[in-house]
Amino acid sequence: MKLNLKDRVLILKSVLPPYDSRRGIELKNSIEKKIKLSSEEADVAVLTNKGYEQYELSFKESDIVNPREEKDFPLTDEELKYLKEKVDFLDRDGRFSDYTLQTYSKIADEPLQEPEEVENTESPTNESEETQLDEEETFAH
């Protein structure tokens, strides 16, 4: 996933929660390791806490770091789904702003890596299992 410095800071400070399930924290930690800021980037980013979990982000002038430059970060589908779930929660909770809209939308709109489709040769056993599942689904509704 292509992210610039602003995207990464917002993900680290606003999207990833401090508390979650065991698997959620494992995914959070994995994402943090992948998108963490270098010391040069951290020196350029100025994050001001405005209260109520609202931050103002600005960047110092730098010859070394371009905050608008996008870099590619190889997130797994599971990590991306996790980020999408967190952004969806923020959306339902009314926590989007003009400043976060672009980053949060980027996450929500990022396509998952689709597995290659394997041609399935169906046997009579598979068809009867599918029919049985369809019948069970009908009764479940």
Key words describing this protein structure:
single chain; 141 residues; alpha+beta; two-stranded antiparallel ribbon
The tally of beta strands, per DSSP, is 4
Order of SSEs, N→C? Answer: EHHHEEEHHH
How would you classify the helix and strand content by structural class? alpha+beta
Strand order of the largest sheet: 1-4
Give the overall pLDDT as a whole number: 84
Contiguous uncertain segments of 5+ residues:
127-141
- Mass-distribution shape: globular
Cα Rg:
21 Å
Report on the structure:
- The chain has 6 helices and 4 strands.
- The longest helix has 17 residues, at about 125-140.
- It is α+β, with helices and mostly antiparallel strands.
Describe what is shown at a glance:
The protein has 141 residues and is of the alpha+beta class.
Topology of this structure?
Layout: E1 2-3, H1 5-15, H2 22-35, H3 39-44, E2 45-51, E3 54-59, E4 71-72, H4 77-92, H5 98-109, H6 124-140
